[in-house]
Design goal:
single chain; about 625 residues; alpha+beta; Transferase(Phosphotransferase), domain 1; Beta-Lactamase; six-stranded antiparallel beta sheet; 20 strands; disordered N terminus
Length: about 625
């Protein structure tokens, strides 16, 4: 199952690749649960001194192991040393793991190490480290294996406690594939943890290491006898491992669930100040939900982790193949929206609905804009014409008597006063013979009056005629030709030209404001409709997928109740239904039996272990199971 979400980690930095940021709030580590004071486990005896281990670290590395030339030490763990070596026979660099001396002297560990190493050597998968050779040199068992160029996953988690979900999914897919292959070959890892996952130099490929070494618990006792020792890493052990029961492929899947939880939240789900309380939580307590402040995890990953961490093995995924099926669904959910946005020519139904709504609103608003603009323009135009008509009638009334008496001085005075009015651009007074008697333009006197050639008749009202004239692209005027009468006697006419620039500017400003308002409204309508349609589509898909899983008997499905609305109520009701069905199913299911009392935890060298020593250390559990 290929996924576009195989996130690249970037270049190494202090042996650790840079992890892509997903949410600044995710940097906060998940709160650790407080340990219960009601621990039923007996405290381990006082620790032995670790001087042997300190002395062991001062030992010089061997020059050769078998035919392999040792170049440098790569690391050491509770069970073995790991060296970088050179094979002169085939001219190849490789890694050689040698069982620790104190364990090599134990026949059970020795035979188990060799048996399980040979079994792991039969595995050939891209997600599993390749074993080349198994043997004994200087009375110490060793494994020659593939030399990996990379760093363990636990170092990545120490640098960045939480990893982005797409990156985690790509890791889990690779691990699940490798486990599925190994389980089909009859090999159970039993120690899945960050320290046993290697990130290669390409920062995309991950491999499982130490495969089969944790199966030593089966080889520590004769056949037919219940083992009194169990190996594993406490935080990653399944309940059946803690209780000393038979572990199988589902135990590996439980550990994988713990690993997913740790990668996403920065902490394992069960933590305590002593092993007794830790094991009680693993066996008895329900695992918490994935919860990080400021980070929303999809319901699908919540369901996957919830199912992986079920106490009863029968309730978990019965195979890694079933897990990969749900991981495939999760990837499809994560990629669906991105594909819709990126696919050429594709328009989702919610986009179509949004465009239809936006088009309807745009058409309605456009028609309304035209009507409002036209009505406003006509109202303002009429106001301007009324103003010009009022001026022309006032002038006609004032010049009637001077025109009758042929009082040239009075006419000139009136015209001169009109020049100070900024709204009046031109005035001319003419007699009944159409000769100009007075004008704001001094060179027209005694000339025959002629209307402006580009003046268009706009309207006629009684004794006045209205003209509209455009002088330039940004300058428009109104002309009013009004009759001068005195006691019903026609004496002449007065021509008045008033500016319409303010009217034009006001109309343009109004038009711009209305257009901007329409665009803002359209954006708001489009955004809200799109968000609403997306929410409906998203919620509908979640409910359909949840119901489909319940139909298939997966009662652990839950839906996040984000808001107290209609969909929130539907999600809440669905969760109640799923919980009821799950409880009914649990009544008929088999339960784990056993306890964690008098449990003793030791390191591989036999020293009493402490819960705070190393969260990723493999230990031995001893008890009369």
């Amino acid at each position: 199952m290929q996924s576009r979400f195989k996130t690249s980690l970037g270049k190494p930095d202090d042996e650790s690749p840079e992890i892509p940021e997903e949410n600044p709030a995710a940097k906060k580590a998940a709160p650790e649960p407080k340990p219960s004071s009601n621990s039923t486990a007996t405290k381990a005896p006082a620790k032995k001194k670790r001087s042997n281990y300190a002395h062991d670290r001062r030992k010089a590395r061997p020059k050769n192991i078998g035919r392999y030339k040792i170049l440098e030490e790569l690391g050491r763990g509770a069970m073995a040393y790991v060296y970088k070596a050179y094979d002169p026979e085939i001219d190849r660099f490789l890694a050689v793991k040698v069982l620790r001396e104190e364990l090599a002297n134990d026949d059970d560990y020795r035979s188990g190490f060799l048996r399980e190493a040979k079994l792991a050597g039969q595995l050939a998968h891209p997600g599993i480290v390749t074993v080349y050779d198994v043997g004994v040199a200087d009375d110490k068992p060793y494994i020659a294996m593939e030399l990996l160029d990379g760093i363990p996953l636990d170092k990545l988690l120490k640098k960045r406690s939480q990893l982005p979900l797409p990156f985690v999914v790509s890791i889990v897919i690779q691990i699940a594939r490798a486990l599925h292959y190994a389980h089909k070959q009859g090999v159970i890892h039993r120690d899945i943890k960050p320290g046993n996952i290697m990130c290669l130099a390409d920062h995309k490929t991950f491999k499982i290491t130490d495969f089969g070494i944790a199966q030593l618990d089966d080889s520590l006792s004769p056949k037919g006898k219940t083992p009194d020792k169990v190996l594993g890493t406490p935080e990653y052990m399944a309940p059946e491992q803690v209780l000393g029961q038979q572990a199988d492929a589902r135990s590996d899947l439980y550990a994988l669930g713990i690993l997913i939880f740790a990668m996403l939240t920065g902490s394992t789900p069960f933590r305590a100040d002593d092993f007794g309380e830790l094991f009680r939580q693993i066996v008895k307590d329900k695992a918490p939900s994935l919860n990080i402040t400021g980070v929303h995890f999809p319901d699908e990953i919540q369901d996957i982790v919830r199912k992986l961490l079920q106490k009863q093995p029968d309730k978990r995924y019965q195979s890694a193949a079933l897990l990969m099926r749900d991981l495939r669904d999760l990837v499809e959910v994560m990629e669906r929206d991105d594909k819709e946005n990126r696919r050429p020519g594709f328009v989702s139904l919610r986009i179509k609905w949004t465009l239809m709504m936006a088009s309807l609103v745009a058409s309605t608003m456009f028609v309304g804009l035209l009507v409002v603009y036209f009505q406003q323009y006509m109202a303002m135009r009429n106001m301007a014409l009324d103003y010009g008509y009022s001026i022309s009638r006032m002038i006609a009334f004032e010049v009637a008597e001077p025109l009758l008496l042929d009082d040239q001085v009075a006419l000139e005075t009136i015209v001169k006063d009109l020049k100070s009015n900024q709204e009046v651009e031109y005035v001319s007074i003419r007699n009944h013979e159409n000769k100009i008697i007075a004008s704001t333009s001094g060179n027209e006197k005694n000339k025959n009056f002629a209307a402006f050639p580009n003046a268009e008749v706009y309207d006629k009202s009684g004794a006045a005629t209205f003209y509209s004239r455009e002088i330039s692209s940004d300058h428009q005027v109104f002309d009013i030709d009004s009759a001068i009468t005195y006691q019903n006697r026609h004496l002449g006419n007065v021509w008045v030209t008033v500016s319409a620039d303010k009217l034009v500017r006001s109309s343009k400003i109004t038009l711009v404001i209305m257009i901007v308002l329409m665009i803002v409204t359209l954006i708001a309508v489009f955004s809200m409709t799109l968000a609403f349609a997306r929410q409906i589509s998203k919620q509908s898909k979640r409910i359909v997928m949840a119901l489909d899983r319940v139909r298939n008997g997966q009662f652990n499905r839950r839906l996040t109740v984000e808001k107290n609305d209609e969909f929130g109520r539907i999600n809440y009701t669905f969760n109640l239904m799923a919980e009821t069905l799950e409880k009914r199913y649990e009544k008929s299911a088999s339960r784990l039996s056993g306890d964690t009392e008098n449990l003793r935890v030791k390191t591989m060298s036999g020293i009493d272990a402490d819960v705070n020593d190393d969260d990723d250390a493999t230990v031995v559990l001893e008890k009369d199971f």
